[in-house]
Amino acid sequence: MATSMMHYFRFGSSKESTPVAKDKPVRALPASWYTSPEMYELERRAIFSKRWLLITHSSRVKNTGDWLRFEIAGFDFIITRDRQGGINAFHNVCRHRAYPVIEQEGSGNAKILACRYHGWSYGLNGKMAKAPGYQDLDGFDKEQNGLFRIHVKVDINGFIWVNMDAKKTPEVSWEEHFANVDKQDRYKAYDFDNYDLSHTYELDGHYNWKILADNFNECYHCPTTHADIPEFLNLESFDSDLKDGHIQHHCVSTPEQLAKGLYTASTYYFPATAMVVSPHFIMVQKFVPKGPKSSTMSYEIYRNRNSTEADFRLISDMYERVMREDKVLCTNAQRNLERGVFVNGQLHPKYEKAPLFFQETCREVVTEHYKRELEEAREIAPARQNVVGGGEDVSASDEGICAGLACGSQREVLAW
């Protein structure tokens, strides 16, 4: 780990971030951060294992037994509505032999979550229901063998957030970065209860997830590449407010845009979700990492049930055209990042301040986590579950052997 990762960081140069001059261009993250398998795995541990992720809206699991299945950065998980009306999230893995308890993609409804490998089953709240034959074994505790739970937060507008941190209380609280983000003043113009899911779609591509976030968070490229943008964005007044954990994009709408309902409240939530709210539709966009050089742009489109088909389609179709144009931009940029020529470019401190803010957040979060790994001379994977319910000593011994093999070539670097 250490030998291959050292060159990504500049430890010792300064304890604080370098101030950004407002009248000078700023160097972006290097291409290696968008292509390296080692960096991607570090981001899985430092970001996607411990940060709150905005996933979907609770209206998608209205009824008892409704479930949704997602995969983000290699984490396969399900969201369920239990018999008490609660919303839960679990890793999609049976506690017996790691087979998925839900094999179907997308969504569905179930009375019980059953693994078809050996017949272990779980309630909608994740508690173990049955493990055939294990009722006769001493030392087997059903209470310790429920599904691996994921932390859930449902915000005031009904959106579901998850945190993969295996600790009983996540290291990063939702309030730490998102307090009142669901109570933005501009949200007062919308009644989120009036929106229903219209459709979803995905754009798979050959690009790192950070390219998608960089692209979403600036409109410097909009006049050049998106003919539809002036219909719903007044680019002359476009600006971004940089918050702790999120970015609010805004502009002053023209009278024509106001009359057509083509004004939007756009928010990016670190690390990998953006949401656009308008009178006629809501778009939830997730930048879903699949690997260091592949991602999916995942879209949930909600329609205001009081809007006409024409009003909804006008803005929904325009946004989809823009998203497909963005896919081309991100794909072609990623190709050149992989050619071994380009190191990094200079970003504009005004027009690209939001991508700079996003990149600095990535840099800070990843660097902090990596320093902890160096100090403890081990990889720290917050989503990794603790072994409980018997046999912990045997598991620890087996794990120790494998860890020793993995770190053998790095012992001198880490000074173990």
TrEMBL record:
It comes from Penicillium atrosanguineum. It catalyses: choline + 2 reduced [2Fe-2S]-[ferredoxin] + O2 + 2 H(+) = betaine aldehyde hydrate + 2 oxidized [2Fe-2S]-[ferredoxin] + H2O. CDD domains: RHO_alpha_C (cd00680), Rieske_RO_Alpha_N (cd03469). The lineage of its organism: Eukaryota, Fungi, Dikarya, Ascomycota, Pezizomycotina. Belongs to the choline monooxygenase family. Gene3D superfamilies: Naphthalene 1,2-dioxygenase Alpha Subunit, Chain A, domain 1 (3.90.380.10), Rieske [2Fe-2S] iron-sulphur domain (2.102.10.10). One of its GO terms (molecular function) is 2 iron, 2 sulfur cluster binding. Its cofactor is Fe cation. The keyword Oxidoreductase applies. This is Choline monooxygenase, chloroplastic. Its EC number is 1.14.15.7.
